[in-house]
Design a protein that fits this description.
five-stranded antiparallel β-sheet, 8 helices, 28% helix, binds FE2/S2 (inorganic) cluster
Length: 274
């Protein structure tokens, strides 16, 4: 028996939303944890961030980016079943009272996690601030999929200024930090931005916890692809994370390692499109 798709909806020019029935995940999932999908017998393992996991269902935001996610968008509809949904995997974030909690995001995995994390942080009595960045208007999600309902304060930015504030989450966050309004930052998205985020918050001593789920390949703890140099130690994003202390990560190494699969991913995508 597989895992039926219960909802599917386009979010933007590049991302979509999908909900699957997976009661075993929904029962014990906590913010920060991820799942691994396998579409069919020939499918690869695809680690995914979670937007919500409740009432027996798991919601995800997915980028039409590689062979598997394109197949999921074009060949799987509501009612179709996935071969497997494994999880919850990884370590949850520590939900407690921090004060002013900011979540920054500029890519699909983190957009999902901004909602999940801030919802839990708000319930724990924190003041929540979401800064969601997109490249342009075509990539911005419909309002109901933004983190607004769980954010006491919400900022939307686009690089070209076509909607929301022109700029990036780093610009908005810098202003909030200068006004002494940030007690802790959670975030995720593009690795280059996360490196800049770590550099921005480090001098202020602001704890900064980020997801590095995007560097995983199989999510099992065995392929070694998600290895991170971390304060003089080696950590595995899928086993020790995916949320890690941004100030301890060797970002240049992580960025270099992540680029290793770009060519293979491009080839697999081109073959699928043909
Ligand atoms: Fe393979 Fe972590 S993704 S070891």
């Amino acid at each position: 028996m597989g895992y039926p798709i219960t909802k599917k909806e386009n979010l933007s020019a590049i991302d979509f939303f999908m909900e699957v029935e997976a009661p075993h995940v929904a029962r014990s999932w906590k913010p920060g944890q991820f799942v691994v999908l396998i579409l069919d017998e020939k499918g690869e393992r695809v680690p995914m961030s979670v937007y919500y996991a409740e009432n027996g269902k798991v919601g995800m935001f997915i980028r039409r980016h590689g062979k598997t996610t394109l197949k999921l968008w074009y060949e799987f509809d509501v009612g179709d079943e996935l071969l497997s949904v494994t999880g919850p995997l990884g370590r949850p974030i520590k939900v407690k009272h921090y004060g002013n909690v900011v979540f920054v995001s500029d890519a699909v995995c983190a957009q999902a996690e901004s909602y999940a994390t801030l919802k839990a942080m708000k319930e724990a009595g924190n003041y929540t601030i979401a800064i969601q960045s997109f490249e342009n208007k075509a990539n911005v999600y419909p309002e109901r999929y933004l983190a607004k309902p769980v954010a006491d304060e919400h900022y939307l930015t686009t690089e070209d200024g076509s909607v929301g504030i022109k700029g990036h989450y780093l610009d908005v966050l810098k202003e909030l930090i200068e006004k002494d309004r940030v007690d802790i930052v959670f975030g995720g998205g593009k690795l280059g931005s996360l490196k800049k985020l770590a550099e921005l918050t480090r001098p202020y001593g602001i704890p900064t916890i980020v997801t590095v789920r995007q560097i995983m390949v199989d999510g099992t703890g065995m392929c070694g692809s998600c290895r991170v140099l971390y304060g003089g130690e080696i950590k595995f994003a899928c086993r020790d994370g995916p949320m890690l202390d941004a100030h301890k990560i060797d970002w240049d190494d992580a960025i270099k390692r992540n680029a290793r699969f770009t060519e293979q991913e491009k080839l697999a995508k081109e073959r699928y499109i043909e």
